[in-house]
Amino acid sequence: MLGIIGGSGLTQLANLDVAHREIARTAWGEPSGPLVFGRIAGRDTVFLPRHGHGHTIPPHLVNYRANVEALRRAGATWVVSVASVGGIHASLIPGALVVPDQIIDYTWGRDNSYQDASPSQVVHIDFTEPYDAKVREAILSAGRRCAEPIVDGGTYAATQGPRLETAAEINKLERDGAAMVGMTGMPEAALAREAGLPYAALCIVANWAAGRHDSAKGIQLDQIEAALHLSMARVRQLIEHLELP
Ligand code: HPA
Hints:
Bound molecules: hypoxanthine
CATH class: Alpha Beta
Distance between the termini: 11 Å
Helix content: 10-25%
Radius of gyration: 17 Å
Order of helices and strands: EEEEHEEEHEEHEHEH
Number of domains: 1
């Protein structure tokens, strides 16, 4: 079953034929909201909005462990995470869709592992390639099928938020090799790997990152909302074209 974690702008899936909702509880606490089970284009899907159904949970307070565990327990066998980002690389203009292939984690103080409660054996996960190759390809080929251009690859810088970055921070992220910046990519991706769930992200560029182009003097937050709103119809269409990897 396909699991979808929706980000800002995607708190519900209009094309999901809802069968039922379920309040999930996990050993790690409650996920961001009830899981929504249904069908998209005839395929079983479970949907969870990362920030809650009313968009009330900020990025640094999301219970990422509970979200990933709830999807796994619900029977998700692969997960597509939808997230908005700021564009750093010149190709990532507002409105662009991108499937990142690498991550740099700048977050701190988040519960970032299932292994923190005196495990009997310490286990290290391989995270050389943080996203699942097959799920990435499923997203990219869905884009080809519905003639929706998607940028293939780029390094996602995960910042702590909830504030946006300074222009100097964005310059540093670029020097580090980041093409885009967002606040929710980690620890979600690492937890999915720990949980054994194939996972990849579809990112929507909502704005130029701080200090860049029309964000040179500041980021217009209402423009982020407008850009996300415009892109979500395309994201929903893309999700309809996803085929099992
Ligand atoms: N920075 C961090 N996260 C974001 C941004 C940004 O500019 N835009 C959307 N999410």
